[in-house]
Amino acid sequence: MTAETLDCVVVGGGISGLTAATLLGRNGVNVICIEANPSPGGSIVTWKKDNFLFELGPNTVLDNCPEIDGLLSAAGLLDKKINAMPCSGNRYIVKKGKLAALPRGPLSFLFGGTFSMGSKLRLLREPFIPPCPAEAEETVAAFTIRRLGKEFLDYAVAPFVSGVYAGDPYKLSLPHAVPKIAALEKRYGSLVKGAAAKRRGGAPQGSIISFSKGFEVLPETLGSLLGDSFLPSSRVTGISADAEHYSIRVRLRDGCDAFLRTRSAVMAIPAEEASAILSELPGNFPDGISSLPYAPVAVISLGFRKQDVRNPLKGFGFLAPEVENRFVLGCLFSSSLFPSRAPAGHVALTAFAGGAVHPERALMPEEKILDETLTDISTLLGVEGAPVISRVTTWEKAIPQYMLGHNSYKLSAKRFEEENHGIFISGNLLYGVSVGNCIQNATALAGRVMNFLKR
């Protein structure tokens, strides 16, 4: 292990850490990225078996910001991304025990049967409802009920929150969990006015992307580009500081301990791990971040013979609102999203269970999770017969929950960075949980690191 002083050590080889390390390296920064697992990517895992391809973590990425294409370009993957099939614009919710199509625009909302006439009339009132006071912090549920009514919460917003955060809308903070929605009210005073303004402005919506061999291609490529600067199966056990540098203690994959001397360090790891590693440095952030709640999620990968599924599966998938009392949170029509996800004559589905409202479901025995999932899938999609392939993957701490008071974590992280110049907090702890959020935030953070190193 080199005894030279590094410019930066990135702790964590998930998408945030890999993004930061790759961009730093491309800009001449002497960087090392350390990952506890034997391969890069964190929760981005692709499983291939019997000509099926399943994503066991994040399934798709919404390519709606320049930072994503910037990273793909840096990785040489820009021309290898694939867009979701056109039918992916069709999305469904469970309502009264059946799948109902979500509106794709104002006309389908007004003339469709998914929402009641009362909810449609309620929407006409929305532009006249005064905004929340600037100093107030609402939950997602309180905001939605105030502006749109209970049916919108139950059958539109709550399922969306479940799909992104596996979260509880009665506990998630609106300005931190869905800041773009909060910003619409703040800027335009109304969601309807804000949506109309964005439509007039032609705001880009982005496209859903992946790769023909699965999303795991991205972290594998980034790890390969880092070469010897990527250290897998190695775990950081602590960080200490002297007047000018940080000393990173690392347990290497051969079982030996090493000390890396560095000018800066990026923390791109889960809250509990970050808390333990940073505990020797001054500031309260390590103690506070350890309490950040996470929702557990079980991912259920299923393959069926196409003839055994009556539903044509022409869409992105469905979400199951909590009020419908289903076991699953939702299900993606994986083989309808991208080609080559299932062999000829078969279909691939990916269901999800657990989350913040029913965490116990994600922690059940795998056989029980599979049985309960098949019961829902069979009823809702007309599945007959057993799956030809199945797998249950449980993420005990899948998604951090941005609940009321989440701003205290952000402020604590900012103070910690100010007290410990050269330490930077990344990952999905604070500013967004999606892969796109992580890439966008890690790109900005890499810029901050480079500015610090120029001092």
Give the helix/strand layout.
Elements: E1 8-11, H1 15-26, E2 31-34, E3 46-49, E4 52-55, E5 61-63, H2 66-74, E6 81-83, E7 91-95, E8 98-101, H3 106-111, H4 117-125, H5 140-147, H6 150-165, H7 174-177, H8 179-188, H9 191-201, E9 207-211, H10 217-226, E10 230-231, E11 235-241, E12 246-251, E13 257-262, E14 265-267, H11 271-278, H12 285-289, E15 294-305, E16 317-319, E17 328-332, H13 334-337, E18 346-354, H14 359-362, H15 366-381, E19 389-400, H16 407-419, E20 423-425, H17 435-453
Parallel strand pairs: 1-2, 1-14, 2-10, 7-16, 14-20
Antiparallel strand pairs: 3-4, 5-9, 6-9, 7-8, 11-12, 12-13, 15-18, 15-19, 16-17, 17-18
Give your account of this protein's structure.
The chain has 455 residues and is of the alpha/beta class. Among the domains are: 8-42 and 215-292 and 403-453, FAD/NAD(P)-binding domain (3-Layer(bba) Sandwich); 105-201, protoporphyrinogen ix oxidase, domain 3. The protein contains 17 helices and 20 strands. α5 runs antiparallel to α6. The mean pLDDT is 93.
Going across the biggest sheet, name each strand in turn.
Answer: 8-7-16-17-18-15-19
**Mean pLDDT over all positions:** 93
The CATH class of the domain at 8-42 and 215-292 and 403-453 is identified as Alpha Beta
**Main β sheet profile:** 7 strands, mixed
Judged by helices, strands and strand pairing, the structural class is: alpha/beta
Shape: globular
End-to-end CA span: 27 Å
CATH topology of the domain at 8-42 and 215-292 and 403-453: FAD/NAD(P)-binding domain
Percent of sequence in beta strands: 15-25%
| Oligomer description | single chain
Question: What is the level-2 CATH architecture name of the domain at 8-42 and 215-292 and 403-453?
Answer: 3-Layer(bba) Sandwich
Low-confidence stretches: none
Rg of Cα set = 23 Å
Number of strands: 20
Q: State the CATH superfamily name of the domain at 8-42 and 215-292 and 403-453.
A: FAD/NAD(P)-binding domain
Share of helix, binned: 25-40%
SS field, number of helical segments: 17
